[in-house]
C-alpha cells in the first residue's frame, strides 16, 4: 500500500486535519524512537536479520507483542508459544477497535480496513482524546478520520524506520539497555494512560492485570507473565462491564 492510498483511507476532510494529526503525534514519536532502537538491536542479538525485523514490525505493527516475541525467541523458535503470546498481547486491539468502530462504520470497507490496520495504542488514544475535545467544543463530527490517520501513519513509518535502524546499528550499540533506552517504552504508556484516566473505578482492570502479571513474573519462569496480564485484564474488564 502506498502512502497516498493510506492517506486516502482517512476519509473526507482537509489536509490541515492530517497535518494536525502528525503534529500532535510528534511528542509521542520522540518517546517512541528510543524503544524502537531497542527492539531493533535486541532482534539482531537474537539472530533476526534486518529484513526479517522490518517485515515483523511492518506487518504486525504492535510494539508490545513484538517485544514479547523477541524476548521469547530461541533457535529454533517456539512458534506456538510466540503466536499465542502475540495474540493475547494484541487482543487489546479488539477492545480498541470496538471503541473506534462507531466513528468508522460509515466508511466503506476499502477505507475502514486500512484505518484499522494502522491502529496502535498511540493513534487510538490521540484519536479518541481529540474526539472528546471536539465534542466538548461542539464540533461535529467529533471524530476526525484525517487527524487519526495523520497520527497513525506518523507512528507507523517512525516505528518501522527506527526499528530497522536499530537492527542496523545493533552490533555497534551493544546492549542498549545500559543507556536506559528501555525505560522509554513504559514511559510512553504511562503518559497515554494518564490521558485516558477516568478514575479508580475505571482503572480496576489495569490494576488486576498489573498484579497478576507481576505475580506471574515472580513465580513462573519464561514470558507467561505477558499472557497472564493480558488475559486477566480482559476477563476482569468483561466481568466489571457486566456488573455495571
Rg value:
18 Å
Count structural domains: 2
Low-confidence stretches: 1-12
Can you give the helix content as a percent range?
over 70%
Q: Helices and strands: which structural class?
A: mainly alpha
Number-wise, the strands total 0
Q: What form results from the Cα inertia axes?
A: globular
Largest sheet: none
Q: What is the string of SSEs from the N terminus onward? A: HHHHHHHHHHHH
Total helical elements: 12
- The mean pLDDT is 80
Beta-strand percentage range:
under 5%
Terminal Cα span: 42 Å
Pfam family, one: AzlC
Main location: membrane
Transmembrane segments: 21-41, 147-170, 176-193, 200-218
Keywords: Cell membrane, Membrane, Transmembrane, Transmembrane helix, Transport
Could you please describe the fold and organization of this structure?
It is found in: Cell membrane. The chain crosses the membrane at residues 21-41, 147-170, 176-193, 200-218. One of its GO terms (cellular component) is plasma membrane. Belongs to the AzlC family. Keywords: Cell membrane, Membrane, Transmembrane, Transmembrane helix, Transport. By secondary structure, the chain is mostly helical. The chain folds into 2 domains: 3-197, no CATH class; 199-244, no CATH class. Helix content is 76%, strand content 0%. It has 12 helices and no strands. It has helices at 3-8, 15-45, 50-60, 63-72, 79-90, 92-104, 109-117, 121-136, 145-173, 184-196, 204-219, 224-243. The longest helix has 31 residues, at 15-45. Residues 1-12 have low confidence and may be disordered.
Amino acid at each position: 500500500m502506498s502512502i497516498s492510498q493510506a492517506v486516502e483511507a482517512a476519509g473526507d476532510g482537509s489536509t490541515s486535519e492530517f497535518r494536525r494529526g502528525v503534529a500532535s503525534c510528534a511528542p509521542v514519536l520522540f518517546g517512541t524512537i528510543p524503544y524502537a532502537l531497542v527492539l531493533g538491536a535486541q532482534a539482531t542479538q537474537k539472530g533476526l536479520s534486518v529484513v526479517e525485523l522490518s517485515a515483523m514490525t511492518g506487518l504486525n505493527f504492535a510494539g508490545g507483542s513484538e517485544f514479547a516475541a523477541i524476548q521469547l525467541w530461541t533457535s529454533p523458535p517456539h512458534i506456538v508459544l510466540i503466536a499465542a503470546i502475540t495474540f493475547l498481547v494484541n487482543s487489546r486491539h479488539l477492545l480498541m477497535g470496538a471503541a473506534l468502530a462507531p466513528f468508522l462504520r460509515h466508511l466503506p470497507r476499502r477505507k475502514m480496513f486500512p484505518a484499522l490496520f494502522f491502529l496502535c495504542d498511540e493513534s487510538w488514544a490521540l484519536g479518541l482524546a481529540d474526539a472528546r475535545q471536539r465534542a466538548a467544543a461542539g464540533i461535529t463530527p467529533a471524530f476526525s478520520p484525517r487527524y487519526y490517520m495523520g497520527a497513525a501513519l506518523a507512528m507507523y513509518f517512525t516505528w518501522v524506520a527506527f526499528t530497522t535502524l536499530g537492527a542496523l546499528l545493533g552490533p555497534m550499540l551493544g546492549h542498549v539497555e545500559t543507556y536506559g533506552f528501555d525505560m522509554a517504552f513504559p514511559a510512553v504508556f504511562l503518559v497515554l494512560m494518564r490521558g485516558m484516566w477516568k478514575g479508580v473505578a475505571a482503572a480496576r482492570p489495569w490494576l488486576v492485570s498489573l498484579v497478576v502479571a507481576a505475580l506471574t513474573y515472580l513465580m513462573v519462569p519464561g514470558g507467561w507473565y505477558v499472557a497472564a496480564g493480558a488475559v486477566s485484564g480482559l476477563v476482569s474488564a468483561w466481568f466489571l462491564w457486566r456488573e455495571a
